[in-house]
Design goal:
Elements lengths: L2 E12 L2 E12 L3 E5 L6 H9 L6 E6 L2 E2 L5 H7 L1 E4 L11 H15 L7 H7 L15 H13 L5 E5 L7 H14 L4 E5 L3 H7 L2 E6 L2 E7 H5 L2 H8 L3
Parallel strand pairs: 3-8, 3-9, 6-7, 7-8
Antiparallel strand pairs: 1-2, 1-4, 4-5, 9-10
Helix pairs in contact: 3-5, 6-7
């Protein structure tokens, strides 16, 4: 597969703290990657750099060979990089359907690519019965699904998901893992997750971060068996 995203020497410093410390990362077209690691490892900071919501202190980000470093965040979105943030960021007074409509307006207004059919997305995110309910009236887990749907309304080439299963039931988490696997046939996806059951179910390339650096990169079972990873994050039990 061709390389879609390339990060070279990516760094982000906050005062004397190296949140991201010289990360090199390549993500192929239609590749799914999970990033794991302890709190403070730099995972969300890395995602912010990849999505354009933060500018690097050093290094470069390229999408399809096009340099994105220094560009405003809307250029990242128009280029096809769409991020679901940690927690939920929906419009609580709007219905589920209206939230999806608003998300689709962004790319329609820019005439970049057509938005998908809302009813198709409602089916994907399991929210057809809640379509006419206000977003404030659905559960936290359902709002997580809604925000994934809002990201999909933008037809991403690269979908960035920050802890998408947080607050979901065990059943919902397993179903989300299945959706991520299916979506990987259409787009590249980078997921940050703390739920190791989710990561195992997705069954994809797994990257481990620690103190701003990548310390392991491979399939989940291989990565999880490494002593360095077990000491830094997973534990020995």
């Amino acid at each position: 597969m061709n390389a879609l995203l390339q990060a070279q020497g990516l760094a982000k410093r906050y005062g004397g703290i190296n949140a991201v410390d010289g990360v090199d990362l390549t993500v192929a077209e239609r590749e799914v990657v999970c990033i794991i690691g302890p709190n403070g490892a730099g995972k969300s900071s890395l995602l912010a750099l990849l999505g354009g919501t933060a500018q690097p202190s050093a290094g470069a980000v390229r999408l399809g060979g096009r340099t994105m470093t220094g560009r405003p965040v809307h250029d990242f979105a128009r280029a096809g990089i769409v991020r679901k943030f940690q927690g939920t960021n929906v419009f609580p007074a709007l219905t589920v359907r209206q939230n999806l409509q608003v998300a689709g307006l962004a790319i329609a207004a820019a005439a970049v690519r057509p938005a998908p059919d809302i009813d198709d997305i409602l089916g994907l995110i399991r929210l057809r019965p809640q379509a006419e309910l206000a977003a404030s009236a659905i559960s936290h887990g359902q709002r997580q699904w809604l925000e994934v749907g809002m990201a999909l309304m933008c037809r991403p080439a690269l979908l960035l998901l920050d802890e998408p299963s947080a607050g979901m039931t065990t059943e919902g988490t397993a179903e989300l893992a299945g959706l991520v696997r299916r979506l990987g046939a259409e787009m590249a996806i980078v997921v940050i997750e703390h739920d190791m059951g989710f990561v195992r179910d997705v069954g994809c390339r797994t990257i481990v971060m620690h103190q701003g650096r990548i310390i392991a990169d491979g399939d989940f079972d291989t990565v999880a068996s490494l002593p360095l990873v077990r000491d830094a994050y997973l534990g020995r039990a």
